Amino acid sequence: WVCLVALVVNKLSCLCFWQDIFDFREKLFNVAIEEHLKVIQIEPTDLGAHAALANAYVLLSSLYADPRKYPDYDEEQWIPKERYGVEVQEKFRFISERAIEEFKILNEYAPGNPWVHLQLAYSYHDLQMPQEEIKEYESVLLLRPNDVETMFKLGMLYFQQGNNAKGLFIYEKIKKIDYKKAKQLI
């Protein structure tokens, strides 16, 4: 009985406050984006400003991301349908594409930066664009050839996309460096 009451109270609380909290966070992120855009208008080639803007877009896109698609999603937790509705998903896609454009600008002005390629890979992952994600992880490996974590993510993508020969090649490379990680890949 007590569990049922707690569940009802939790749902009621979520229903009453989720939209207010969501709107407040959305407004804060949008203000941050507007401020970064003002800085870029003054200094259009300032890489720090572009990086800050890209990060602001990433933060806003994470607000719009469908929580059901993340591994730490708790199916017991109630989420209003509006939280993952069509309008929110359109906003997610639009803002994620803006973040990608900022990272592409950073890549043009500072080529060879693994952080930029990793951010692009994460963005492509969120947008469910595996081929583009693979290209970015391949770029990171060219810059950091012994990065086991990147190799692992790339190997997983190769196997998921049916590129088993490439996945096995990555497996062999990881096996020489970290046998336990290689076993996780298979």
Overview of this protein structure:
- The protein has helices at residues 2-42, 47-64, 86-109, 114-126, 130-143, 148-160, 164-177, 179-185.
- The chain contains eight helices and no strands.
- The longest helix is centred in the N-terminal third of the chain and has 41 residues, at 2-42.
- The chain has 186 residues and is mostly helical.
Quick tags:
single chain; 186 residues; mainly alpha
Short description:
With 186 residues, this protein is mainly alpha-helical. It is built from eight helices and no strands. It is 77% helix and 0% strand.
Structure class: mainly alpha
What average pLDDT do the residues reach? 88
Order of helices and strands: HHHHHHHH
Percent range of helical residues: over 70%
Whole-number radius of gyration?
20 Å
- Please state roughly what percent of the residues sit in beta strands, choosing from under 5%, 5-15%, 15-25%, 25-35%, 35-45% or over 45%: under 5%
Largest sheet: none
Low confidence ranges = none
**Could you say which overall geometry the principal axes of the C-alpha atoms support?**
flat
The N- to C-terminal Cα distance equals 46 Å
The DSSP helix count reads: 8
How many beta-strand runs? Answer: 0
Q: What's the helix and strand layout?
A:
Layout: H1 2-42, H2 47-64, H3 86-109, H4 114-126, H5 130-143, H6 148-160, H7 164-177, H8 179-185
